[in-house]
């Protein structure tokens, strides 16, 4: 085949035929094409190109992955930017709130200062009032002492007056009994209560007694009557009934005044109250 080529190259016309023959062989003969490529160093170039293509393919894959990661990062960055904007808005709101709180704090401090002044003024007033109260307490203690002494004097005077009043009532009773019972004398029953039936301890018991027919009228004379007086008189009458054992008894209290509770007690204990 090389001799044919050499032969064909002997003339100008043959060069054109040679080119056509070589091109035909390159198109139709794979081994010839490979041999020519090897002679020209194209095979190594093709292999290197193939390797480069493989590397480019891997690089493209890596680039795709990088692009995907970049896209993810972009989305994350956008989300972070949104969060940052939201945080900035929150910070702005907080700053406004802090400013409002600071203003309130200033107002509160002013109010506290005013209240402190008012408290100091009130404390001064309280101190003055305490001094006045102490002074009034001394005056009140003095008045209480005077009232106590006056009460003692009044009690002594009242005791005397009570005796005088009861004596006057007793004199009135004599006239009343004379008119009411038709008798001139009122007897007095005296008995020493050793068992303390009436007062709870041994003492002398006295009861005015009027006897008419078979009825014993037990009479108590008081200038004024209380519930306690009615109860004590009733106990005296019970003791009289126990000791004397009369056929019939009637309990009477003669007084100038008896309050409502005393009258209720007398009604419950079957004691007649006569006011004169």
From TrEMBL:
The keyword Calcium does not apply. Residues 42-153 form a coiled coil. It comes from the Archaea. This is DUF3782 domain-containing protein. InterPro entries: DUF3782, PDDEXK_10, Restrct_endonuc-II-like. Keywords: Coiled coil. The keyword Coiled coil applies.
């Amino acid at each position: 085949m090389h001799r044919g080529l050499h032969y064909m190259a002997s003339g100008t016309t043959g060069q054109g035929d040679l080119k056509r023959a070589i091109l035909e062989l390159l198109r139709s003969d794979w081994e010839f094409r490979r041999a020519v490529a090897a002679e020209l160093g194209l095979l190594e170039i093709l292999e290197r190109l193939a390797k480069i293509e493989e590397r480019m393919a891997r690089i493209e894959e890596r680039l795709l992955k990088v692009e995907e990661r970049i896209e993810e990062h972009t989305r994350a960055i956008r989300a972070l930017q949104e969060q940052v904007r939201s945080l900035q808005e929150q910070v702005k709101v907080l700053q406004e709130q802090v400013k409002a709180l600071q203003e309130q704090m200033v107002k509160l401090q002013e109010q506290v200062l005013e209240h402190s002044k008012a408290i100091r003024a009130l404390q001064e007033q309280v101190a003055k009032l305490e001094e006045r109260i102490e002074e009034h307490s001394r005056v009140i203690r003095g008045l209480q002492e005077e009232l106590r002494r006056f009460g003692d004097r009044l009690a002594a005077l009242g005791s005397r007056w009570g005796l005088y009043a009861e004596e006057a009532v007793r004199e009135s009773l004599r006239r009343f009994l004379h008119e009411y019972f038709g008798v001139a004398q009122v007897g007095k029953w005296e008995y020493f209560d050793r068992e303390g039936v009436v007062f709870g301890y041994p003492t002398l018991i006295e009861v005015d007694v009027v006897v008419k027919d078979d009825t014993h009228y037990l009479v108590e004379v008081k200038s004024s009557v209380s519930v306690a007086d009615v109860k004590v008189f009733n106990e005296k009458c019970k003791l009289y009934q126990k000791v004397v054992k009369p056929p019939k008894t009637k309990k009477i209290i003669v007084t100038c005044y008896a309050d409502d509770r005393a009258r209720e007690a007398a009604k419950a204990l079957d004691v007649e109250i006569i006011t004169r």
